[in-house]
Amino acid sequence: MPSVVFLRAASVGKTNRCQPASIAKQLAKFGVLNIGAVGTFVVREDASEAALRAAPARKLPFKCEMMICPARDIIKLASKDPFSEQALGPNIVRFVSVLAKRLRALPPLPLTLPGTTTGW
After folding, report:
1. May I ask the CATH class of domain 3-79?
2. Backbone angles phi, psi at 67, to 5 degrees
3. Are 27 and 55 in contact (CB under 8 A)?
4. How far is it, in rounded angstroms, from Cα 106 to Cα 104?
5. Torsion 26-31-37-38 (CA) sign
6. Checking CA distances to 29, which of 55, 76, 87, 108 falls within 20 to 30 Å?
7. In the chain, where are the structural domains located?
8. Strand, helix or coil at 62?
9. How many Å apart are CA 70 and CA 118, to the nearest integer?
10. Model pTM?
11. Residue 27: how many CB atoms within 10 A of its CB?
């Protein structure tokens, strides 16, 4: 089943340096496409979760968590338009986080970051 792989704590800077385009080339047998610069990959071929975890881990010079989602779940989430009833404006940033573990309780939403009053 096609999947999306998210690497946690990967960076294009000096610490935990990751070269996603290079990793995608090395994992071509899985039909891997690199999305963005910090470790998000679309895996087009059917592969077990174990294989998807092992292959990138061997290519990285540091240890990081991987979140693997079936592509159909990402498509389903996007098709629901989860932000359709939320405010829109230049100071509002919409994003989705993929967690490595289920939270014990949901945080109060919307989130407001320290030092702000508008959410961002």
Report:
1. alpha beta
2. -110, 125
3. yes
4. 7
5. negative
6. 76
7. 3-79
8. coil
9. 33
10. 0.72
11. 23
Name the strands in the sheet holding 66-70, side by side, starting at the edge strand that comes first in the sequence: 32-35, 40-43, 3-7, 66-70
- Cα 72 to Cα 3, 80, 85, 111: the distances in Å are 8, 12, 23, 27
Average pLDDT of the chain is: 80
Residue 97 token pair: 């986080």
Tens of pLDDT, residues 31-72: 999 887 677 889 999 888 888 888 777 777 777 788 899 999
| Structure tokens belonging to residue 47 | 């592969």
Distance CA 96, CA 89 (A): 17
Total residue length of the chain: 120
> Which two tokens mark 61?
């010079």
How many CB atoms neighbour CB 51 within 10 A?
14
pLDDT score for 120: 46
Judge whether residue 12 has pLDDT over 60.
no
H or E stretch at 89 = none
